[in-house]
Amino acid sequence: MSSFIHLVCDYAQGDLAWAEVVAALSCKLHDDTRIHTTSVHPFDTVSTGFVVAQLALADRELRPKNMLVFANCAPRKDKKDARPGNEGEGLLFAKLKNGVQVLAVNSGYSLSFVRDQITEIWSTNVEEAGSQFRSRDFFPLAVSKASRGDFSFIKAKMHATEIVPQEPAEVVGYIDSFGNIKTTLRGGDNKLEALTPGTRLKVTVGTHTSTATVATGSFNIMEGDLAFAPGSSGHERRYWELFKRGGSASDEFGHPLAGTPIKIQTA
Questions:
Q1: Are residues 152 and 217 part of one domain?
Q2: pLDDT for residue 193
Q3: Which residues, in sequence order, are bridge partners of residue 149?
Q4: How much is the pTM?
Q5: Measured between alpha carbons, how far is 193 from 190 in angstroms, rounded to an integer?
Q6: Are residues 16 and 145 both part of a single domain?
Q7: Do 134 and 187 reside in the same domain of the chain?
Q8: Rounded Cα gap, residues 224 and 243, in angstroms
Q9: Which CATH number goes with the domain that contains 93?
Q10: Could you report the per-residue pLDDT of 30-51, keeping only the tens digit for each?
Q11: In the predicted model, is pLDDT for residue 250 greater than 80?
Q12: From CA 29, how far away is CA 87, in angstroms rounded?
């Protein structure tokens, strides 16, 4: 039984959609089940996948027991034609190596950052059409069943390598509320091996270029400087991030969207 659910959706904090989804879930969950909500930008499956991995793959002492992650970001971009009945991407159910269960819409990169950790992945019999607001009208029942260990909603076993794309390389992965740009460059990447603290870099994010200093951490630079350093996400292989001490790296690079390419060169 899951007593804690991480709910990741592309609704703005405080949006009416949150109130309706959380209320619908609460009607079907045990009274002692806790829910925590995390927002990503609309239709942003890159950030969705980044957040899912950060939460689902947390060290044992940093995640609640029997945790379930539910990710709903459904841009309906898998088909360009009109969507009869507001049909959307299907809901998938996955089990990870660490025992965490994930329910996620089969959209873009929503499961890409946990792809290599998936031991089982299933399609579900949850309705794909019939409502514009499936996360309120259809998905809560599947979430509640999964939280109780009732898997009557799963349908066909699938292969993660066939239906889940690899995580995008060398792009913006997530931007936090401080404007720190978390990239998908991470420890062990060849491009990072040769970098030493103090090295000056020319960093291009999308169409914006600036100069950053390689650092061992975000705060060991002068106020106002831009650092490129291992960040707080990624667990044993930390993702590197762009951080402007006393400012916003996102401002510096023109507020890029997740998925924007990043190019790094020695200055």
A1: no
A2: 85
A3: none
A4: 0.92
A5: 5
A6: yes
A7: no
A8: 10
A9: 3.40.50.10790
A10: 888 999 999 999 999 999 999 9
A11: yes
A12: 26
